[in-house]
Amino acid sequence: GYSNNPGNSTLMWVVVVPHAVGNYHPQGRSIKLRSSSGTWSLKPYIGASKYDNIGELFDILLVNVTEVGSTEFTNYLNKSARDKDWPGMDDLPNGSVILKKVFVKRR
């Protein structure tokens, strides 16, 4: 992807939203922009596994969050990894701004 400078006080995250459930699944880590070019890359996980959720609909969001919001995403991911359970978050952190939304259908 590409982004103009989102600002020093915010961090960008990719978040996957399965339409069937409607909860929020932050992906891996906050996005690190590559120098002044503004480009970035991150591989989102769509569905529970390689064989699950075929034909289901998802939104992929690019979200700006504060440092506190980024910490909420990181805490969710750490707890999910520890518990080996990724239920998703009920809401985005307070102050989140959706910058871009892409609709996809899992094949």
Characterize the quaternary organization of these chains: single chain
Structural class: alpha+beta
What would the principal axes of the Cα set say about the shape?
Answer: globular
Helix segment tally: 1
Which key features would you list for this structure?
single chain
Tell me what the structure shows.
By secondary structure, the protein is an alpha+beta fold. The chain is 16% helix and 26% strand. The protein contains 1 helix and 4 strands; from the N terminus they run βββαβ. It has a 4-stranded antiparallel beta sheet with strand order 2-1-3-4. The mean pLDDT is 87.
What can be said about this structure in brief?
The chain is built from 1 helix and 4 strands; from the N terminus they run βββαβ. With 107 residues, it is of the alpha+beta class.
Task: Please specify the SSE layout and strand pairing.
Elements: E1 11-18, E2 25-26, E3 57-65, H1 67-83, E4 97-105
Antiparallel strand pairs: 1-2, 1-3, 3-4
